[in-house]
Amino acid sequence: MRRNWTRHELILAFSFYCQTPFGKLHRLNPDIIKLSKMIDRTPNAVALKLVNFSSLDPELKKRGIKGMGNYAKMDKIIFDEFHDNWEKLFLEAELLYEFYKNKDRDTSQEIYLYEPNRKIGEEIITKTKRRINQNFFRKIVLSNYNENCAICSLNYVSLLVASHIIPWSKNKETRLNPHNGICLCSIHDKAFDQGLISFDEEFKVIISPQIHKIKNNAINNYFINFNHREINFPKKFYPSSDFLSYHRNNIFIKSS
């Protein structure tokens, strides 16, 4: 007998969809197999649900990718609720993940985020939220770029950073938005953060005059050789033009 998808299952599936390139939404993906076991569904059913989400994704529509087109009503409800509410998605998905990992769970249990009144409790929950948010943001951004630096294509995960275009401290509303993230290696992330590199309206690398002043092989290899090159484009969440404009106008060092 066919079993309807629950809200909890759909939230987990959507969070996984956001962290996975379109080309890996298939039943042989080990992570899809793991998720299917967790929620007691077949890998094929999970893969089809993820592809259903893709048919609702405006980012893929811009690239001419339409998905299956036979999504359910609840699929759209979940997509519309969470697509621009990243903090809520990350927190609920983390709680659900921990819930479903528990083999002895009470399926009637209410899942919610406990908000304590005591100051010490508030500090703990704030730190927990930040850890969860940063972890999910990193997963989404690195996955979006196939775990490659957008500038130099370095693909060693330990040396990759989910860089914020508008810094974390400057705008609370953009902190978890995948369009505010770009995958960079540690060197290019540091330079980007310091305003020594940025990206123009055509997503090409621009190098600060301060970098051009330094004459040595390392600078040529890591920076000058990439000047005016297009970035390695992401699979789903393109960097926002508005966010890049903010970086160029407020952080990028344009003159000596």
Spatial strand order of the main sheet: 1-2
Structural class: mainly alpha
Q: What share of residues are in beta strands? A: 5-15%
Mean pLDDT: 86
Structural summary, described in words:
By secondary structure, this protein is mostly helical. It folds into 2 domains: 7-101, no CATH class; 146-250, no CATH class. The protein has helices at 7-18, 30-38, 43-54, 58-62, 73-82, 86-101, 119-144, 186-193, 209-212, 217-222, 241-250; strands at residues 160-164, 181-185, 197-199, 205-207. The strands form 2 sheets. It has a two-stranded antiparallel sheet with strand order 1-2. Helix 1 (7-18) crosses helix 5 (73-82) and helix 1 packs across helix 6 (86-101). It is elongated. It starts with 6 loop residues before the first helix and ends in a 6-residue tail after the last helix. Residues 149-200 form the HNH nuclease domain. It comes from Cyanobacterium aponinum (strain PCC 10605). It holds the Pfam family HNH_2. Keywords: Endonuclease, Hydrolase, Nuclease.
Keywords, please?
two-stranded antiparallel ribbon, 2 domains, 256 residues, mainly alpha
Strand and helix map with partners:
Elements: H1 7-18, H2 30-38, H3 43-54, H4 58-62, H5 73-82, H6 86-101, H7 119-144, E1 160-164, E2 181-185, H8 186-193, E3 197-199, E4 205-207, H9 209-212, H10 217-222, H11 241-250
Antiparallel strand pairs: 1-2, 3-4
